[in-house]
Amino acid sequence: MDRLEYELEHRRPEDEKTAQRQESKTRERFKNGVLSGIDLSKSLTEEVYKTRLKKLQKRLAELHSELYRLRIPVVIGFEGWDAGGKGGAIKRLTSNLDPRGYRVNPTAAPNDIEKVHHYLWRFWNSVPKAGHIAIFDRTWYGRVMVERIEGFCSEAEWRRAYQEINEMESHMANAGAVVLKFWLHIDKDEQERRFRERQANPAKQWKITDEDWRNREKWDQYEEAVNEMLIRTSTTYAPWIVVEGNDKRYARVKVLQTVVDALEKKIKEVKEKG
Question: pTM (2 decimals)?
Answer without folding.
Answer: 0.89
